[in-house]
Amino acid sequence: MERTAKPDWPDAILKGAERVLVALSGLSIAAIMLVVVADVTMRYVVSQPLGWSYDLIGSYLMVCVFFFALPDTLTHHSHIAIDIFNPRLPRWFMHLGLAVGYAFSALLVALIAWQGWLRFEGSYAAGDQISATVPWPTWPAYLMVAIGSAFFTLRCLHRTVMHMASMLTGRELADMPPPPETAAIDGEHAE
Question: Where is this region: Disordered (predicted)?
Answer without folding.
Answer: 172-191
